[in-house]
Amino acid sequence: MNYCLKDLADLTLQDIFDVATEHLLFQFAKCSRGVGCYYRYEDKKCAFGVFISDEEYNKTMEGVGASAVIKRFGVPSEVLKNDLCKMDLCNDLQGIHDYSPIYEWAEELYDLAVTYELISPILQEKT
Q1: Using CA atoms in the order 107, 109, 114, 117, what is the torsion angle rounded to 10 degrees?
Q2: Which segments of 28-100 does DSSP mark as H helices, in order?
Q3: CB crowding 3-42: b at 16 or more within 10 Å, else e
Q4: Which of 14, 25, 46, 83 is deepest in the core (most CB within 10 A)?
């Protein structure tokens, strides 16, 4: 399924986590040119980039954190004002993609699931 930024308003924390986790573990590669990470590069997307549709994507998004992209390009802040956990989760998922070695992703994602009290059958298979 293809997602867009506005979908974040309707997705649950569990949905966001599941989509990003499945994407990262299937892709199993950073979206990078060797230095820095990108929302998209060539045929890859980062953990948060999977929620940015082709129509929404703009190169000016690069170098901007997930929560800033949500606020500037996607979901009006009043929609998410009572659900800051979604922005926090998106930032945390982006952080795992950007800063953790790929071989640690499954463990980092598992720890993130525990932190947010989420379940993840795909991670139980990987860890």
Answers
A1: -160
A2: 66-73, 77-80, 84-99
A3: bebbbbeeeebeebbbbbbebbbebeebbeeeeebbbbbe
A4: 46
Q: Pick from 116, 92, 82: which is nearest to 20 by CA?
A: 92
Token couple for 112: 């993130």
For the chain, the first-to-last Cα distance in angstroms comes to 26
CB-count burial class (<10 Å; 0-12, 13-18, 19+) for 57: middle
For residue 68, the one-letter residue type is A
The pTM (predicted TM-score) of the whole model is: 0.89
Chunked in runs of 10, what are the mean pLDDT values of the chain (127 residues)? 88 95 95 85 94 93 89 70 81 94 95 92 60
Find the domain containing 116 and state its range: 5-126
Nearest Cα to 66, choosing from 42, 37, 108? 37
Give Cα separations from 62 to 40, 49, 68, 83, 84 (angstroms).
Answer: 9, 10, 11, 24, 22
Tokens of 43: 């045929």
How many domains does one find in the chain? 1
